[in-house]
Design a protein that fits this description.
heterotrimer, A alpha+beta (163), B alpha/beta (128), C alpha+beta (148), A: 163 residues, alpha+beta, 60s Ribosomal Protein L30, Chain: A, five-stranded mixed sheet, 34% strand, B: 128 residues, alpha/beta, Rossmann fold, five-stranded parallel sheet, 5 helices
């Protein structure tokens, strides 16, 4: 079945028939984890790099922020006791004007996630980030493949990559 | 990729660069490797007299013996000439690439190295 | 003071932003402030291509901490002074090589020296171009000196 992942959510599955999907990433980042060994995968949809601007929101929706959301992902992976069995891929982080008139939220999101993973001993093996496109991504739990839809103005292109 | 326990030699005068490279190979390919480290070409050649490696990953700009001289010496050696070589360097220009191509090195990673870049190169070499 | 071409300014700024982002996961942006570092120790490397340049790098202590701790994935206090210096020299090494390519393209054979620690950084006088940056709230400066 299709499981939709909303902004600020982290969802995971071990059912081969499931697809985890998140929509319209814009400057947000989707970090996708997958393990063929365990038949498991997860997707977090992060909106902002730093929770210090809104600690109350971080308590109710920790996955909205990279600094409070990524530990939730790592906690999930640690349940398997084999972090190297998982792959780490990132999508999104576009340069799109935010509500405060800034373009750099996508870049900040990406750098924060990469920094946190690197410092925790994890490495991203695939990046589909930046530009001015909005991405919708879907992870197929059985194969680990990720389908990406790109939307820029009136133009749409589609591609599928393998895990 | 060689079965079980491939050995990768990393040749770079910077300990930081060697550390980053080891991590990136581990992330990109899994962690079933043994790493050997050398600080320059001369140091690497000396270690290669006693040890067998499956892959050499070398920087170019190094004191004592630079990367291109090191690769040339490997290619001149009957014992070492078949070892695949990947070059990692912050310098990338047509002259350097031509020199390396003459020495049979097609795999070039522009520093800063990352797991993504290592993965792409190692896929071409059939290690992933 | 010698005027720097817009293309060269873009090459330096892009190289610095990309190198620190890719290597140290730091968001470094051009800044209008005139950074000062007091007696801070800096780093320098020679680059030769269409011309001979000396590229200096300096940053605040806090910026050095961030760069080194991010790259090493370890606390500053757990690292030796050799590891710290090597780390900052390596980022300048990468910056220098990338800058050569950004300035002159891949058709030009670029030679890079070995990066070194320097105590005396050049001032904001004639003959040098100063590029000030903000590294997530901390000052970071690159100085380019033409050497004929």
């Amino acid at each position: 079945m299709r499981i939709d992942v909303g902004i600020g959510e982290f969802k995971a599955s071990r059912n081969a028939g499931d697809t985890l999907k998140t929509y319209g990433l814009g400057s947000c980042i989707a970090l996708i984890i997958h393990s063929k060994q365990f038949g498991a995968g997860g997707l977090i949809h992060v909106a902002l790099p730093d929770s210090s601007a809104n600690p109350a929101k971080a308590r109710t929706l920790p996955c909205y922020f990279a600094d409070t959301g990524i530990p939730k992902v790592l906690q999930y992976i640690d349940c398997f006791g084999a972090r190297k069995a998982f792959s780490y891929r990132v999508f999104g982080g576009a340069s799109i004007l935010d509500d405060n008139g800034h373009f750099d939220i996508g870049k900040r999101n990406l750098l924060t996630i990469k920094r946190m993973l690197w410092k925790a001993g994890y490495g991203i093996i695939h990046e589909d980030v930046g530009g001015t496109v909005s991405r919708t991504v879907a992870l197929d739990i059985a194969s680990g493949s990720v389908a990406v839809n790109y939307v820029e103005t009136n133009k749409t292109k589609q591609g599928v990559q393998r895990a | 990729m060689p079965e079980n326990g491939a050995t990768i030699m990393i040749v770079d005068d910077s300990s930081t660069s060697r550390m980053i490279t080891k991590r990136c190979f581990g992330f990109a390919l899994g962690e079933q490797f043994t790493f050997m480290e050398a600080t320059d070409g001369a140091n690497a050649l000396s270690q290669l007299q006693d040890d067998v490696v499956d892959l050499i990953v070398t920087d170019i700009n190094m004191p004592k013996m630079d990367g291109t001289t090191f690769v040339w010496k490997i290619r001149m050696s009957d014992q070492l000439k078949r070892i695949p070589v990947v070059v990692l360097s912050s310098m990338k220009n047509d002259a350097l690439k031509a020199t390396l191509r003459e020495l049979g090195v097609e795999q070039f990673v522009q520093k800063p190295v990352s797991p993504v870049k290592v993965g792409e190169v190692m896929e071409v070499l059939g290690w992933r | 003071m010698e005027v720097i071409a817009e293309r060269e300014r873009t090459a330096v700024e892009t190289t610095v932003m990309e190198t620190f982002a890719e290597m140290a996961f730091l968001d470094v942006m051009p800044s209008n402030s005139k950074n000062e570092f007091g007696t801070s120790q800096g780093f320098a490397v020679n680059i030769a291509g269409n011309e001979r340049l000396r590229c200096y790098l300096d940053m605040s202590i806090a910026a050095k901490h961030a760069v080194v701790e991010n790259i090493h994935a370890d606390a500053w206090t757990e690292l030796s002074s050799e590891e710290i210096d090597d780390c900052l020299l390596e980022i300048l090494n990468v910056l220098g090589g990338t800058l050569g390519r950004a300035l002159w393209g891949e058709a030009v054979r670029c030679k890079l020296g070995f990066p070194e620690v320097v105590v005396m950084m050049p001032g904001r006088g004639d003959g040098v171009h100063v590029f000030d940056f903000d590294a997530e709230g901390e000052p970071l400066t690159v100085i380019m000196e033409r050497r004929g």
